[in-house]
Amino acid sequence: MRTRLRQLVVTAAVLFTAAASLPASAADDQDRRERPSQGGLSAVIRYTEYGIPHILAKNYADLGFGEGWAQAADQVCTLADGFVTLRGERSRFFGPDAAPDGSLSSATKNLTSDLYFRGVRDARTVEKLLAEPAPLGPSRQVKDLMRGWAAGYNAWLKQNRITDPACEGAAWVRPVTTLDVAARGYAIAVLGGEGRLIDTVATAQPPTGSATATPTPDTPGTPNAKAAARAARELFADADMGSNAVAFNGGTTANGRGLLLGNPHYPWQGGRRFWQSQQTIPGELNVSGGSLLGLPTVSIGYNAHVAWSHTVSTGVPANLHQLTLDPADPTTYLVDGRPERMTKRTVTVAVKDGAPVTRPQWWTRYGPVVTSLGSQLPLPWTTTTAYALNDPNAENMRFNDTSLGFGKARDTAGILKSLARHQGIPWVNTIAADSSGHSLFTQSQVLPRITDELAARCSTALGRTTYPASGMAILDGSRGDCALGRDPDALRPGIFGPERMPTLKDAPYAENSNGTPWLTNADRPITGYERIFGTVGTPLGMRTRGAIEDVAAMAAKGDLTVRDLERQQFANRVPAGDLTAEDASRACAALPGGTATGSDGKAVDVSEACGALKAWDRSMDTDSRGALLFDRFWRKLTATVPEAQLWKVPFSAADPVRTPNTLNTDAPGFARALADTVTELRTAGIALDAKAAAHQFVVRGGQRIPVPGGTESLGVWNKIEPVWDTAAGGYTEITMGSSHIQAVGWDGGRCPVARTLLTYSQSSNPGSPHFADQTRLFSAEKWVKSRFCEKDILTSPALKVVRVHG
Question: What CATH number has the domain bearing residue 590?
Answer without folding.
Answer: 1.10.1400.10
